Amino acid sequence: MRVAFVLYPEAIVINKSNGIRNQALKWRDALDGLADVELISPWQTIDWGKYDIIHFFGGTQWLGFVPDLRRLNDNVVFSPVWDSVDSQQKLRRLAAAGWKGYHHPWNMYRQYLHSFKGIFVRSDYEAEYMRYSFKVPDDCLHYAPIGYEIQIEDKDVMEKEDFCLHVSALYQERKNVHRLVEAALQGNFRLVLCGNTGNESQRHEIESWAQGSPLIDIKGFVSADELKRLYEKAKVFALPSLNEGVGIVALNAAVAGCEVVLTQIGGPKEYFGGMAHLVNPFDIGDIANAVSKAMSMKSTGKLRSYITEKYSPQAIGYTLLNCYKQIMAKI
Fold first, then answer.
1. Confidence label for 41 from pLDDT (cuts 50, 70 and 90)
2. What is the DSSP string of 111-170?
C-alpha cells in the first residue's frame, strides 16, 4: 500500500516539538513494514493517482483543494487533531453562521470536512466534536489512537523515588503548571518540571511560582536520556492540563511504571482504562490530594501492561492499516 502524508503549511515555521507533525511521524513509523509512507513536499511534482491513500494532517489551508483532489484520487482522508475545549453547541452555532468570506477554522471545517472520504479521530471526545459541531457522519469517522514514544526495559519491579514529574511546554497557560506548582507546595511533595520554559520573562514567571521552595525543581529542557531516567524514577506523573488532545507524555510515564494524575477534561482519560487518577484542573486542592494519594500507592503494574499492549507501534500500525482498507473499499 502506498500512502501520502501531507502536513499543514504552518508546520514549516513551527518548531520540531509541534504535536501534529509528531503525530504524523509516529504514524509513519507505526506503518513501517505495513505500508510505504511518503512525506509530501510542496516543491514536488506529485502524481496523486499513484497513492492508495492521501492523508492530510491538521490546519485548514488545504481544505478547499480537497474536492478537486478527489477527482484525481478518491481516497483522501484527514486528521483534524482537534483539541478545543469550547462547547460543541458554541462551535456548531458559529460554524453554521457561515461568515461569508471569512476563513475561520470553524467555518472551513463546516464547509469542507464532508469533502474527505474519512476523518481520523484520536478519541471519542474528538469524534463527538466532529459529529455534533461539524456534522461529520458516523460512517466517515475512523478511530486511530496515538501511542507512547519511549522504550523501557521490562522489569517486574521498578525502583521509584517519591517525586512527581511533569513534562510540557511549561510556559503555556493550558498546561496548568502554575496550579500544579501550587498543589506541590500545598501537598508538600517534590515536583520536577521538564520542558520548554519559553522566553526569559516566562522563565522568571515560572520561577516566581516556586517561591524559592526546594520542593520545586525546574529543569527546563533535558536530554532524551535524562528524560527517560526521570520517567523511570518518578513515582507519579501529573498532567492536569486545561486543554489536552491525548497527552503522549502521560502515556510515556505509564509505560515507565508511573502512577498517572490526569485532567478530567477532554480525551486523554479515555486512554487509561479507568486506571488514571482524574482531577479537576481548576482545583488546586484536588490536584494536591490526587498526587499525594498516588504517591502512597503500591504499583500493581496493571496500567503499564495495559498501555504497553494497547498503544504499541505495532497495534497502532494495524489499526491504521485496517482503517485505510475500509476507506479504500468504501464506494
1. confident
2. HHGGGSSEEEESSHHHHHIIIIIS---GGGEEE------------SS---EEEEEEES-T
